[in-house]
Amino acid sequence: LVRKSTVGMSESYDFLFKFLVIGNAGTGKSCLLHQFIEKRFKDESNHTIGVEFGSKIISVVNKMVKLQIWDTAGQERFRSVTRSYYRGAAGALLVYDITSRETYNALTTWLSDARMLASQNIVIILCGNKKDLDADREVTFLEASRFAQENELMFLETSALTGENVEEAFVQCARKILNKIESGELDPERMGSGIQYGDAALRQLRSPRRAQPQGTQECGC
Ligand SMILES: Nc1nc2c(ncn2[C@@H]2O[C@H](COP(=O)(O)OP(=O)(O)OP(=O)(O)O)[C@@H](O)[C@H]2O)c(=O)[nH]1
């Protein structure tokens, strides 16, 4: 199998996962997405209007996974718009700000929305963001990790400012989804799973030994 990205052609991947980033306004969702994709802090971040979009291909346990990420507005007035994007998401980063108890208290609402409106099997990682502001912390690591355990969420504290644990959050979530596909717990072909096969996986299924001829066009969506 020739990966087109390695020869300067358009991208190739085994799976595409639809991801959401949800949580209260100001918790750093847009900055997390920006740090993940651009590997730097987004200096001037304004409130997200509705929904923003980003995508990136990562390597997870020998598979190339394209994450298609929807960064939703945290502000209440956009709630009806953002809710319409939940459907068919395979994974989500549920974000609160460790320096704001209010954003932590809102987690149960976000969680019930996600479980109700996205895929039933959605894999969620709780992210306690702004880890760099430890002096202003209002929520302890222990308290949040208990909440995560009780609600079957993975959990990390992150910093979109320093980049700490940002890539890890996306990768851990993707890895859990891949594990569930491999164990048969998740069926990528089920409607609304939030998972699609990429052309790499399809080529393997169709002709396991033949390499893809170079120069083939694809839409890359
Ligand atoms: N110190 C610190 N500040 C951060 C971090 N992440 C985000 N911020 C700041 O927090 C503010 C809000 O960040 P955004 O990414 O716009 O927040 P958001 O969750 O996308 O907000 P909405 O789009 O309104 O939902 C900005 O002023 C960022 O600079 C972080 O990890 N550490």
TrEMBL record:
Subcellular location: Cell membrane; Early endosome membrane
Keywords assigned: Endosome, GTP-binding, Hydrolase, Lipoprotein, Magnesium, Membrane, Metal-binding, Methylation, Nucleotide-binding, Prenylation, Protein transport, Transport
PROSITE patterns reported for this sequence: RAB (PS51419), RAS (PS51421)
Major site of localization recorded for this protein: membrane
SUPFAM superfamilies on file: P-loop containing nucleoside triphosphate hydrolases
A Gene Ontology term for the protein's cellular component: early endosome membrane
Membrane-related topology note: Lipid-anchor
InterPro entries referenced in this protein's UniProt entry, alphabetically: P-loop_NTPase, Rab4, Rab_GTPases_membrane_traffic, Small_GTP-bd, Small_GTPase
Domain of life: Eukaryota
Family annotation (Pfam families): Ras
MF-aspect GO terms: G protein activity; GTP binding; metal ion binding
Gene3D superfamilies referenced in this protein's UniProt entry, alphabetically: P-loop containing nucleotide triphosphate hydrolases
Cofactors that this protein relies on: Mg(2+)
One GO biological process term: protein transport
Catalytic activities: GTP + H2O = GDP + phosphate + H(+)
Alphabetized NCBIfam families for the sequence: small_GTP
Function field: The small GTPases Rab are key regulators of intracellular membrane trafficking, from the formation of transport vesicles to their fusion with membranes. Rabs cycle between an inactive GDP-bound form and an active GTP-bound form that is able to recruit to membranes different sets of downstream effectors directly responsible for vesicle formation, movement, tethering and fusion.
Family under the similarity heading: Belongs to the small GTPase superfamily. Rab family.
Protein name: Ras-related protein Rab-4
Record lineage: Eukaryota, Metazoa, Chordata, Craniata, Vertebrata
